[in-house]
Structures are given as structure tokens and as C-alpha cells.
Amino acid sequence: MSDNFNGLLSEEEASFLAMYEEDLEAIPALSAKDREKYLEKAKKGNDDARGLLIQDFMHTALDVTHMYAGQGILLQDLIGEGNLALVSFFKDIPGDVTAENLEARVTENLVGVYDEMIKAASDEEKEQAKIIKKTEQVAKAAKAMSTELGRKVTVDELHEKTKISKKQITDALKNTANKIEGLKASE
Q: What are the domain boundaries of the chain?
């Protein structure tokens, strides 16, 4: 079943995927007639029917996962969130879901969940890049000022000279475990 997502997976993820796919193979697919029957039962609150639908759509979740592999989120996390999305979807099935649009609605829901995950990961990556850039700026300024004065400088001195906020300087110190060359650790 797996093609290692065209080489996008680490060895660990590929191993996980192989085991996961093997587990999924043990789950028989429901026929269209069975899906319709279980959908009606699930809408009426039948937990067994919900469980069977969730299991049936785990294959769909894995198919959708293919589109998101290699975009900064571990495969295990994608699959886990996809499965949680299935549980949530079938817990509160929207009233307009029918046997005819079920596959499309589940897929749409999964895509929405995965899109949110990718956006959140991207936002976090951008925030980390800002922190690194600011830390590098503090380190460069501290080293230059320390070289100029021939001693380590304080947070207050660096702030006064560079107008970098004291909070940004102390955050940079924290981010580097107080290891910025030429800058005294806060006392």
C-alpha cells in the first residue's frame, strides 16, 4: 500500500506507516449499503455504528494524510489528529450529511484539520525564526560592545547603547542559557 509517500518520510515514519497500514488491512471496508445503514444508526446515537464508521474512514484519513506528508509535521501526528477528527465528526454528525455526501464531507473535514495543523506549524516556525534573529542581533551587539569596552557589558548598558529592549536582551540570554559572549548574565 505505501510508497513511503514518495520519499518524504524519515526511516522512523516509514516504519510507523508500515505497521499502521498492516493494522488497517485487518479492518474490512464497509459496503455502500452498510455505510448507509450505520450512518443512520450513528445519527441516532448508536456508538457501535459510530465506531464502525470511524474505522472504515481511517483508510480515507490515511489517503488524505498523503497530501500533507513532508510539510513539517510528523506522520504520526497527522494520523493521530486525523483519527481524532473522525471521532469528532462521527460524534456530532452534521444534519445535512447523507450516505451520498458522506465521503466528501469526511474528506473535507480532514483537509480542514490538516490545513489548520500546517498553518499552526508554519506560524510557529516563523515565530522561532524571529526569536533566533533577535537573539543573533543581541549576541552581535553584545560582542561588539564588549570588544570595544574590553569587558562584559550589562543588560542595561546594551539596552542604552542599542535601544534593544531589556526584555528582548534578557529573553536572548534565557534562550542561550546565559551564554552570549560579552554579555553579563542577569543577576
A: 4-124, 126-175
